[in-house]
Amino acid sequence: MTASLPRQAAHSPDEPPRPTEDRRHRNRRRALTLLIIVLLIGVPAGYLVISANQSRNSGKDKEAKYSATGLTAGYPSKVQRRLYQVPVPHPADRIAYYETNNWKTSRLYVQFRTSNAGLDTFLAGVGVGREDLKQGDITISARDQKITGWTFTGPGPWAGLVHKQKNPAPTQDIVVNTADPANPMVYVVSRTVP
Question: Residue 174 contacts by C-beta under 8 Å, 6 or more apart in sequence?
Answer without folding.
Answer: 123, 126, 128, 133, 139, 160, 161, 162, 163, 186, 187, 188
